[in-house]
Amino acid sequence: MAFSNYSKLVANKETLTELLCSAELTKGIQNELQWISIVNILLSIITFFGNATVLLALSKVSTLHRASKLLFRTLAATDFCVGVISQPLTVLSLMSQVHGQFNVCRYASTVRFLISHVLCTMSLLSSAAINLDRLLALSLRLRYRQFVTLKRMYVIVTAFWVLSIAFSVMSFISERTTTWFYTLVLLSCLIISGISYAKIFLMLHHNQTQVNSLAVCQMQPNPVRTPNAEVYKKTVSTVFWVQIGLVVCYVPFMIIGLIIRNNQTVPIVLAWRCTGTLLFFNSSLNPFLYCWKMRSVKRAMKETVRTICCNRSSEFVTTSNISWHLDHKLQQCRLTLSGP
């Protein structure tokens, strides 16, 4: 659908919430808003089940360091809250906007902004911390468990929460400052993740080169396949998709968020709604990008799903047996009452 029909400027509002929940914006784009709501409902379901499975699976993983497991749990819990809180509030604000209930739209949008700011910041910080944790585990080796302790990790995660909440509350004071803050957080996390993965890449490549050189010196006819080689290949693949997913989901939203401050046209605001949905999509990807690639977590997730399915099947069988016995007893009673 061409956006040329929507080239009319929307009247400037005091806040972005008032801009989104206005009659000027809603006129003519009800169908688009409804489709965005449907997409958010589907993503909310995927995010809920995906991250709930990860949280249950992590409790069964014993090979993962407890401090690292805390980071994965924080990331999964944050993404879980996105699917349970942020996306339903998004659907509520969109549908109330479609039906002209602008007061409900403003309240829902205000709460959604506050919660989504906290959760998205935590998701970014947790992702960067996981990447840095992997670098420390590879570089420190035996000293890793002494340096990265569970107590220190609790302090770091708590600091993340305090920082996220503090700057989210600041959005009520200055939305522009908050937007620049989240842009800075995104760039910082991308830089930290990029540097961490680059160092991991170089270290694994260096280790594999040493192993191959040693194999040549020992006159071995076949190249040596070491665990580091397998980790090297999987890490490169995982790094690529994680970084692509993060950039694709977050960068468009940040760009539109900066543009919308000075260019409040209906197409820009509608694009902002779409990129917001794309940002939430990252919470659906994280269970697969971060955990599905790890063998121990992948195995635990499969066992969790299998256990849940088996329990439901057992409950169904038990319920069927009880129903059969009740019907059998009822039939016997009827035969007794209708006897000679």
Descriptive overview:
The protein is 82% helix and 0% strand. It has 340 residues and is mainly alpha-helical. Helix 3 packs antiparallel against helix 4, helix 4 runs antiparallel to helix 5 and helix 9 packs antiparallel against helix 10. It is globular, with a radius of gyration of 26 Å. 29% of the residues are buried.
Overview in brief:
With 340 residues, the chain is mainly α.
Shape: globular
Helical stretch tally: 11
* Sequence stretches where pLDDT stays below 50 over 5 or more residues: 1-13
Content-based structural category: mainly alpha
Number of strands: 0
Draw up the topology in text.
Elements: H1 16-20, H2 23-26, H3 30-58, H4 66-98, H5 102-140, H6 144-147, H7 150-169, H8 175-217, H9 227-259, H10 266-291, H11 295-337
Properties at a glance:
disordered N terminus; 340 residues; globular; 11 helices; 82% helix; mainly alpha
